[in-house]
Design brief:
Layout (H helix, E strand, L loop, with lengths): L2 E7 L3 E6 L11 E2 L6 E22 L3 E6 L11 H6 L3 E5 L8 E2 L16 E9 L16 E12 L15 H23 L1
Antiparallel strand pairs: 1-2, 3-9, 4-7, 4-8, 4-9, 5-6, 5-8
Length: about 200
Amino acid sequence: MSARKLTLSASNGVQVYSHADTNVSPDHAVDNNNGFDFILLEFPNPVELLSLTNSWFKTDSDVSVGAFNSNPFANTSPTWQQVANSAIQTASYTNTISGSPYIFANKTSIVSSENIVGVSGKFWLIGAYNAAFNGAGCTITCFNDAMKFGSITTKLAALPTSPDNAQDVPLPGTISLFAAGIFGLMYRNRRRTQR
């Protein structure tokens, strides 16, 4: 599950040269020939994946994506089904084509109940169609997907309230005490100016 070479080209986007594709064309794309190619993205804070834009595709451009709280490959050698099962959410989408943004909120996933709209994760896997990521048998043309990702767009997820970023709301008694202190200071200053 590791790349032989990963490059980012200004004109071609992300190119993955996988170990399994040394004698298969294209051997320079995120594809599902002789295995599944995925790009694992890590962000400092959870993000929502809004869209992707392919800079190139061959034959077909079906993708699978998954959001994770932690690296699904850390300290193990999982199967693709184990990776998918450890996700916050997975989904697969057909015909992402190339040249214009494929906006997930405007599309229906292969299994309509599985989509990534509104889902946030610190780790995201994006790759060629993999049936493990849509919870159903392959009902589309499989194993002919090859793409180069030119860009993705994300949105920083709203951070949940936690003890570290929570702010105390003053109780009514505290506000009254504060107001009494202000009035006391004003009364004292007024008495001083009258002398």
